[in-house]
Write a structure and sequence with these properties.
The complex is a heterodimer of chains A (about 325) and B (about 400). Chain A contains three helices and 20 strands. Chain A is mainly beta. Chain A has two domains: about 140 residues, OB fold (Dihydrolipoamide Acetyltransferase, E2P), CATH 2.40.50.840; about 140 residues, no CATH class. In chain A, strands 8-7-6-9-10 form a five-stranded antiparallel beta sheet, with no helix packed on it. In chain A, strands 18-17-16-19-20 form a five-stranded antiparallel beta sheet, with no helix packed on it. In chain A, strands 1-15-13-14 form a four-stranded antiparallel beta sheet, covered by helices on one side. The longest helix of chain A is centred in the first third of the chain and has 12 residues. Chain B has a single domain, classed as Peroxisomal Thiolase, Chain A, domain 1 (3-Layer(aba) Sandwich), CATH 3.40.47. In chain B, helix 3 packs across helix 15. Chain B is globular and about 55 Å long. Classes of the chains: A mainly beta (about 325), B alpha/beta (about 400).
């Protein structure tokens, strides 16, 4: 046992979370986005007679279901703006532009979009603008490439529209991506450094004396910092397991295989690993195992039987 | 001052299905809310606050969906709260709403929970590729299957018990028009012959992935007096949490679950849950969790839960019907699943459960859990106001 010493520096790595979420649009958003594809901007009329663009399904004031669609103009007025000097990837324009709220003629609310302008001196509240349509349109807000300055008459009476188009868009894919920098913290960094030497080092809670593997820097039960590093294993006991018969996505493991909870000798709780070196249908609770390391793996590739007699149930039942 | 009695006077659900491509998320929650309002014969103006719950944001990728759902749920000018406790969220959402009424903060509260699983992938949302960490090597059921094996070892339960639960719940679902799975041709033999996915869990012993929403209207004694249909009364409600993983955690029978049930029974004056409770809607995402929770919730001694299942006590016509609605095994819009348990318990004591009504049900338990058996929420409802 050694006192906890801080490692040189906690590890850090990029964590990118991305997924192509799908959206069922419902009747109102379906009409709005399909309309954009057809260069038609639709709003919805509220119970009080206001025209909301973009439209919503339910009246923000009364909660009534809104279905009365109207067509508004493709020209409008900037109601407020902010200059974006350094566009990021995925934003509407690659060159510096203004984020604008535009009240289209005939609408009572403003739509958020981008304004292509040479510089902030060319933008002002009250500026008259029009839609610049994207060349390729698919039924998405990006069918409006951006807005551009354009003088035009302001008068426009919204016209009733039934919202019907051929081949309506009923769903969209909305890819989401989040970029994080992840740090596992000091305790896990210590653990990972030890794994690099093929040692498994947990940390002991000074209050309940349980050894946490992997360590988290604190005991979740007692709420106090773990104080001592303790090497556990390398041998351990299979406390319980399942036999996996279906291939999980992104896992290159031949089925069937055994996925087990393994309590390393001296650890206060089990960790998870694959069992190899024994036919899958001969794995059992209480089996004694040891890690098998691969050339470049951070973690043991799998665990294999040690050949020792099985552990008695009473020795690990508290770890289930 | 004693707490205000809390009554459930309106219940609404969507027909749960694999994918509701015809509606937006707003349209989905709206449908359940309107049905609850219609059941209570109330309008948006009668609602003082909205309490909403769903599973983690990653499941649909809408950060803080409550922001954009305020319109659909008539929340303008009213407090709107979101509750966030993983799979148990439907239950804890209802309890937060109930507590607002019990504390006389609000008189009538709309509470609602939903999930549109078709718009995302829950398994992806639960297994983000965190750097330096060992990936889960087993897929969705692989997290639960080892705990089922531990239960079998601890109790000596025969390996057929899980199939009995699955067959029962799927048959019960045939009597519930809102249930997702309606497997008319299912037999016990087919359950037992279904593929073993994560031994000891078979395909037919796992829950589906559903789109759906559930809503309830909770109100005070005066509101219940005006209600057109019988109310379900909240006799007890509790939540408990514990860490996801800690040394000494009992995954088969978590302490937080036992403590939560004990608190609910104490509030409701229940001393013998097996005899005093007429119907149970418990959160059983994999069939074996029925016998496990029967023990955890005090309906059976440790090691004896599977015997109730095997003896047929938990069948719809047994003396302790469990999941007469068909349960999570038949319907699983994750964020809503807990609230559906709570709502189905209320339907039972209101005598309004239709074909899956438990005859003469007067007290029913709704139960939810989530987050790797970390969060527990339960309520006990009765057909008369609580004493005192």
């Amino acid at each position: 046992m050694t006192a906890v010493t801080p490692p040189p520096e906690a590890l850090r790595a990029p964590l990118v979370v991305e997924f192509p979420f799908t959206r069922s649009l419902g009747p109102v958003q379906s009409a709005f986005l399909t309309g954009l594809r057809e260069r038609t901007v639709l709003g919805v009329r509220t119970e009080a007679g206001e025209v909301l663009v973009p439209p919503v399904e339910y009246d923000p004031a009364t909660a009534a279901e809104l279905r009365e669609l109207v067509e508004v103009a493709t020209t409008g007025t900037v109601t407020t703006w902010a200059w974006n000097p350094e566009p990021r990837p995925g934003q509407p324009l690659a060159t510096p532009f203004a984020w604008v709220l535009v009240r289209l003629d005939g609408a009572d609310t403003a739509l958020l979009h981008a304004l292509d302008a040479p510089g902030p001196e060319a933008v002002r509240t009250g500026l008259r603008v029009r839609i610049r349509w994207a060349a390729e349109r698919a039924g998405a807000i990006t069918d409006i490439a951006c807005f551009e300055p354009h003088e035009s008459a302001r008068e426009h009476e919204p016209a009733p529209h039934d919202g019907r188009f051929d081949a309506p868009v009923t769903g969209i894919v909305a890819p989401a991506r989040l970029d994080y920098t992840y740090s596992p913290g000091r305790a896990q960094t210590r653990y990972l450094h030890a794994l690099g030497e093929r040692r498994t080092v947990g940390e002991r809670c000074p209050s309940c004396a349980k050894v946490y593997v992997p360590p988290r820097g604190a005991c979740p039960t007692c709420g106090v910092a773990t104080t001592d590093q303790v090497e556990v294993g390398p041998r351990g006991t299979v406390t319980t397991f399942c036999i996996v018969n279906i291939k999980a996505k992104n896992l290159d493991i031949e089925v069937p295989y055994v996925y087990a909870h393994i309590a390393l000798d001296g650890a206060g709780l089990a960790l998870h690993g694959r069992i190899g070196g024994i036919p899958y249908d001969q794995v059992r609770m209480g089996l004694r195992v040891e890690p098998v390391w691969s050339e470049d793996g951070r973690y043991p590739d799998h665990y294999r039987p040690t050949g020792e007699p099985d552990a008695d149930y009473d020795t690990y039942k508290e770890l289930l | 001052m004693p707490k205000e009695p809390v009554a459930v006077v309106g219940i609404g659900q969507t027909k749960h299905v694999a994918a509701r491509r015809d509606v937006s998320i707003a349209g989905l929650v709206r449908e359940a809310a309107l049905r609850a309002l219609a059941d209570a014969e109330l309008t948006w103006a009668d609602i003082d606050a909205v309490v909403i719950g769903k599973a983690p944001d990653f499941f649909e990728g809408v950060m803080m969906p409550e922001l954009y759902l305020a319109d659909a749920l008539g929340a303008v000018g009213k407090p709107m709260l979101r509750v966030h406790t993983a799979g148990s969220v439907g239950g804890s959402t209802a309890l937060v709403a109930a507590n607002l009424v019990a504390a006389r903060v609000h008189r009538t509260v709309l509470t609602l929970a939903f999930e549109k699983q078709s718009e995302s992938n829950a398994m992806w949302g639960l297994s983000l590729p965190v750097p330096f960490q060992q990936p889960l090597l087993a897929g969705a059921g692989g997290f639960f299957a080892p705990h089922v094996r531990a239960y079998m070892r601890r109790t000596g339960a025969p390996d057929t018990i899980g199939s009995l639960v699955a067959y029962k719940d799927r048959r019960n679902a045939l009597k519930n028009p809102y249930a997702h799975l309606h497997e008319h041709d299912l037999t016990l033999e087919k359950v037992q012959a279904s593929p073993m996915l994560w031994d000891p869990i078979r395909y037919s012993e796992t829950c589906p992935s559903s789109d759906g929403a559930c809503a309830m209207i909770l109100t005070d004694r005066a509101g219940a007096d005006r209600a057109p249909r019988p109310a379900a009364w909240v006799h007890g409600g509790a939540m408990r949490s514990e860490p996801t993983l800690f040394a000494g955690k009992d995954f088969v029978s978590p302490q937080a679950g036992q403590d939560c049930a004990a608190d609910v029974y104490r509030q409701a004056g229940i001393t013998d849950p097996r005899r005093e409770i007429d119907a149970v809607e418990m959160y059983v995402p994999f069939s074996w969790y029925e016998p496990m929770w029967l023990e955890n919730l005090g309906f059976a001694e440790e090691g004896e839960g599977w015997k109730l299942t095997e003896a047929g006590a938990t069948e719809l016509d047994g003396d302790l019907p469990v999941n007469p609605s068909g349960g999570v095994l038949s319907t699983n819009p994750i964020g809503a699943s807990g609230m559906i348990r709570f709502a189905e318990a209320a339907l039972q004591v209101r005598g309004d459960a239709g074909e899956h009504q438990v005859e003469g049900a007067r007290r029913a338990l709704g139960h939810a859990y989530g987050g790797g058996a970390q969060f527990f929420s339960m309520w006990l409802v009765g057909d008369t106001p609580p004493a005192g």
